[in-house]
């Protein structure tokens, strides 16, 4: 059994991984200073825009959070419920609301990780063996994968550093 100090260190590492990316760019860096007119652009030979990726991250992360807190969780239909249709114009309000919701859901998930009564290694009674640790790693992995896609699209659109 891990000591409380070790658990706290693990939780802090998980939070840093999700929030800052460690060895890769964070979502916040990948989306910073993106020209508004490029949010909805779908580059040639790619299936989605940066907006669709941000929305997918928002939806998937919220789904993971909901699964992690509720035995009443209702599974979404893949892929229909996880991807938004393309649209060229994305308002500042839509953009900021999506990014703020991602941040807020991360804060809620971090609170779950920090709650001492939550066992990182215990399987959720309503799942198939998933644990809070597994869900944290899933968020980190999924977000980093799609964040890299955002960077690639920005490069294709000549909108990266």
From TrEMBL:
The cross-references to InterPro entries, in alphabetical order and at most eight, read: DinB-like, DinB/YfiT-like
- All copies of the DinB-like domain together span 27-150
Name the domain of life. Answer: Bacteria
Pfam family name, one: DinB_2
Q: What is this protein called?
A: DinB-like domain-containing protein
- Source organism of the structure: Dyadobacter linearis
- Classification lineage: Bacteria, Pseudomonadati, Bacteroidota, Cytophagia, Cytophagales
């Amino acid at each position: 059994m891990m000591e409380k100090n070790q658990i706290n260190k693990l939780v802090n590492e998980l939070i840093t991984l999700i929030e800052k990316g460690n060895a890769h760019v964070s979502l916040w860096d990948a989306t910073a200073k993106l020209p508004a007119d490029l949010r909805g652009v779908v580059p040639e030979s790619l299936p989605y825009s940066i907006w669709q990726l941000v929305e997918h991250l928002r939806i998937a992360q919220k789904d993971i959070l909901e699964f992690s807190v509720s035995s009443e969780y209702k599974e979404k239909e893949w892929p229909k419920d996880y991807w938004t249709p393309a649209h060229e114009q994305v308002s500042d309000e839509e953009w900021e609301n999506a990014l703020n919701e991602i941040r807020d859901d991360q804060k809620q998930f971090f609170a779950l990780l920090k709650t001492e009564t939550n066992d990182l290694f215990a399987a959720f009674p309503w799942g198939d063996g998933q644990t809070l640790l597994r869900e944290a790693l899933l968020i980190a992995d999924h977000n980093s994968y799609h964040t890299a896609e955002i960077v690639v699209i920005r490069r294709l659109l000549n909108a990266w550093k």
